[in-house]
């Protein structure tokens, strides 16, 4: 738990979220400002700032986050395909400095993104 981290607070249940999945290690919830008709975030509960601060011990957890993407995407109606995104660092478009995988699809604004 990192002080003043919004995703740590969501992971601890201190701030509500529209959850799509939760286990001991990972939580997934709908993005508050969706860029597609379906847009959710898969978040390791452990506070990892970004891909730039990964340590070898984080690898299994990151593998789990990635492997959950197709499972949760199917459950959210994206079984025919979806996009994923990890923004890294302020210069990489990251605004919440707790690592998260965006999963989105199903039409909407993101269809026109590169
Ligand atoms: P980033 O720009 O860091 O890759 O993405 C952060 C994402 O988190 C944004 O898409 C933003 O809409 C979402 N977000 C920020 N604060 C909250 C929140 O309190 N709840 C939820 N559900 N999403 C949030
Ligand atoms: Zn955090």
UniProtKB/TrEMBL annotation:
Residues in HIT domain copies: 6-114
Transmembrane segments: none
Signal peptide: none
PANTHER family: HISTIDINE TRIAD HIT PROTEIN
Matches recorded under InterPro entries: Histidine_triad_CS (IPR019808), Histidine_triad_HIT (IPR001310), HIT-like (IPR011146), HIT-like_sf (IPR036265)
Motif placement: Histidine triad motif: 98-102
Stated name of the protein: Histidine triad nucleotide-binding protein
């Amino acid at each position: 738990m990192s002080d003043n981290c919004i995703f740590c607070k969501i992971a601890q249940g201190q701030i509500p979220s529209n959850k799509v999945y939760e286990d001991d290690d990972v939580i997934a919830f709908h993005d508050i400002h969706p860029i597609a008709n379906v847009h959710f975030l898969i978040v390791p509960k452990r506070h990892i700032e970004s891909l730039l601060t990964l340590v070898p011990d984080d690898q299994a957890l990151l593998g789990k986050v990635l492997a959950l993407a197709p499972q949760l995407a199917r459950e959210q109606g994206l079984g025919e395909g979806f996009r994923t995104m990890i923004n890294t660092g302020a210069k990489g478009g990251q605004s919440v400095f707790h690592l998260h995988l965006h999963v989105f699809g199903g039409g909407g604004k993101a269809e026109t993104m590169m």
